[in-house]
Amino acid sequence: MPIYIDISKCIGCRTCEAACQIEHEGNGRLNVHYVEDLAAVPIFCHQCEAACCATVCFSGALRKDGELMIFDEEKCTGCGLCAFACPFGVVWVDRFAHKCDLCRDRDGGPACVAACPAQALFDDFEEAIRRARSRTARALATPGGVR
Amino acid sequence: MIRVESSLCLGCQSCSNVCPSQKIVRTEEDGRISISWKSCNEQCDLCLKACPTKALSLAAHEEAAPECEASFDMAVCKICRSRYATEPMLKMIESSLPSEIQKDMTGLEWIRVCPECRRNVEAKRLVGQILPERRRKDFRCSFLFIAGKRGLYPGRVQLLYDL
Question: How does DSSP classify residue A80?
Answer without folding.
Answer: -
